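Weekly structure sync - notes
Attendees: PM, LS, DV (DV joined late)
Agenda: review two folding runs queued last week.

Item 1: First target. Sequence and structure tokens pasted below for the record.
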Amino acid sequence: MFGNAGTIEGFQRGIARRARWSTRATLMLGVSFAGPLLRLLGMQSWGINLFGKTKPGKSTVEVVGGSVIGLGTEAALPSFKATITGLDKVAITSNDSALFINEAGLLGRNAYAALSPMIYGLSEGKDKVRAGESVYASDAAASGWSLVYVLSSEEAIEALALQAGTTRQGGEVARCLDVPAVHSSNATVFDRRPPGLTDEEFSCWAHGQMAELRKACAENHGVVFDAYLRGLMELGDTLKPRAQAYIDEFVASLFLKDADGAVLHAARNFGTIYAGLRLAMDIGVLPPPWRALAVRRAVKACFRDGLKVSRLRDTTLEEAKAILHQRLTETPLPRKQEARLDTDVGFRTTEGPDELVAIRSMEFVRWFNSKSAHLYAVLAWLDEHDALVKTDASKRPTGRSYEWAVTTPRAPGWKGKRIVLRLPIPK
């Protein structure tokens, strides 16, 4: 079912430009670009289960990812039944690439009993289930295949395991992370809204974009992967260190200092997606308006949403969020016009449609005591959720610098930097 059709320009115009408006479509493009990097980096195969009810666009974004490697329609995607019965034959066709498998609902009531050994088999790179002493790693050089795979399902694998009366092991979760098909309260895979659209207009626009994406994928598929591979080869000896640097950049941006091994393993996996997208941008396959910061935020949003579903926990962020919510609850924060310079550390105010909380930056830092990792993690998380008011939207809250923090809104006599948050704060 693989084939080449259309042009690189057609892919960029019809698929890549539209995919920027969806964190999930961005993720699926990155899956295909990550596939060729695994063996180079000595990493084992790994996967994503994209889950959610019908009609939000799961299959559409799978086809978007598949269009990179030559799968132009949903009918071209392998089915679960075919994959279960011939794992090695299906996987080997996607060696050093990506494997998209459609609809776990075909597996019926005993879905988890079939999925669990399939996940181990795909991730180990061999057509057999073997979990040795290491719960994460296998010898990539000895594997029969090396790939990133995407499963789709109406339910999370975590939920399917519970239905079967069991729970997933950490090693299995790290090998294949559940990622919800929609972010937050969005109705479709499109979660980045063009300016000026009402809720109703955005919904109509999103469904129109899905139809256009499917049409563009049918017309343009396969050709961009050839160009990407040629570009990787032209990088020569610089490819491996550059890819590794992108992975390290992504993992560092998550502030996972105190996270457990399974979380770190999953983070590095998603780092290969970020690396693939950045390399595609470097090569010119994903030209402007694709931007590095937007790409990193999209992949991080998918990873964070996956952690919320799984039993894995980023302990640093979870603790930091608990501290933030406790402090906001316990700290007296009067309205701006009632705030007193000598006693209050912050205040509440309304600007346009936004309800804001302004906290003195030095006091906000004190909330987290000496736990700088917690402070940086919660600031990055707030920034990802657009809950942080900044002097410049392109600036990131990193390190000890607070030049991104604002001096407004002001109360009488108040000066200096403040951490300004939009309410309500996400949980």
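Item 2: Second target, run right after the first with the same settings.
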Amino acid sequence: MELEDLQNDIEGVSAYYAERHRIDRTDDWFVLKLNEEVGELTQAYLARTGQARDKGRGPEERDADFRAEVADVLAQVLLVAERFDIDLADEIARKWLIWRRPTPAS
């Protein structure tokens, strides 16, 4: 799946969820929601690594919680990019991919 397609699908889900629950998705909401999701990822990581209480969840459940929170953070990043008209592929290429290790000449 292409990044733009994923972003569009997630935007559709978020818009539907907001409509259903009467959430006003303001600029602030998008950024604050990202912060909330990062906090939940941190909680899941701490539980997974034994640095916080496990709330009665076993190792497999804690691993699943961690994976789900990583997905939530990515989804919210995509929503922030959509909201602020950021081409993530271009920005990643500009910021990260310029540091790729050169390939040896054949």
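Discussion on item 2: The chain has one domain: 3-99.
Action: LS to circulate a short write-up before next sync.
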